[in-house]
Design brief:
binds 1-O-pyrophosphono-5-O-phosphono-alpha-D-ribofuranose; binds uracil; two-stranded antiparallel sheet; 31% strand; 209 residues; 33% helix; alpha/beta; 6 helices
């Protein structure tokens, strides 16, 4: 079974509370999501491998460490995942970005894929799939299915808020994909929305409602 890492740093909790508030407008919502994504990326990248190199400081030569191993890729699930890309890129500016477009059919709650564009060497990269909401889990499961069908083997999922149902579904579908999440909420409502959640993340990021 995959690991679930709840990243509940006080700064993140504070910023999520502001995002939950229905009176928080689009500009602040977007900025908060970017800030939280950067803070989360710090934890998601904690186990990146290092190698020793020699560097000459103004004082003397020393052995010191730099990143090594697989290159990173960020894969936002459109639309709402786009709101997390810039925050992660602030910490790992050399990462390549792939996009997977999925929308959730409002009747069936099943994800429908409408777009997929990935870096050509995506199979060789360590991927971080980003989406603020893990509700039924259908969208994240489908996005990871798409990546695996294209040969990707090293995948993590980073979400802002999850429902227990979605976390469990994701763990069962993809036991090799670790989940990094900032808040685990109570449940889903009858429309598949996370309770208490923050409403429709895509609409709040882009001002479409
Ligand atoms: C939202 C959200 C996730 C999905 C989560 O996207 O950004 O992708 O729902 O729900 P699930 O876990 O039940 O699949 P939505 O389908 O509303 O599309 P949008 O981002 O384009 O608004
Ligand atoms: N998608 C959202 O944007 N919010 C939810 O609560 C569930 C799915």
């Amino acid at each position: 079974m995959s690991n679930v890492y709840e990243i509940n740093h006080p700064l993140i909790q504070h910023k999520i509370s502001l995002m939950r508030d229905k009176d928080t407008g689009t500009k602040d919502f977007r900025e908060l999501l970017e800030e939280i994504s950067m803070l989360m990326a710090y934890e998601v990248t904690r186990d990146l491998p290092l190698r020793e190199v020699e560097v000459e400081t103004p004082i003397c030569k020393c052995l010191t460490k730099v990143l090594t191993g697989k290159k990173l890729g960020i894969v936002p699930i459109l639309r709402a995942g786009l709101g997390m890309v810039d925050g992660v890129m602030k910490l790992v500016p050399a990462a390549k970005v792939g996009h997977i477009g999925l929308y959730r059919d409002p009747e069936t709650l099943k994800p429908v894929e409408y777009y997929c564009k990935l870096p050509p060497d995506v199979q060789e990269r360590e991927l971080i799939v980003v989406d603020p909401m893990l509700a039924t889990g259908g969208s994240s499961i489908a996005a990871v299915n798409s990546l695996k069908e294209r040969g990707c083997t090293s995948i993590k999922l980073m979400c802002l808020i999850g429902a227990p149902e979605g976390i469990q579904a994701m763990q069962e579908a993809h036991p090799d994909v670790d989940i990094y999440i900032a808040a685990i909420d109570e449940k889903l409502n009858e429309h598949g929305y996370i309770v208490p959640g923050l409403g429709d993340a895509g609409d709040r990021i882009f001002g479409t409602k």
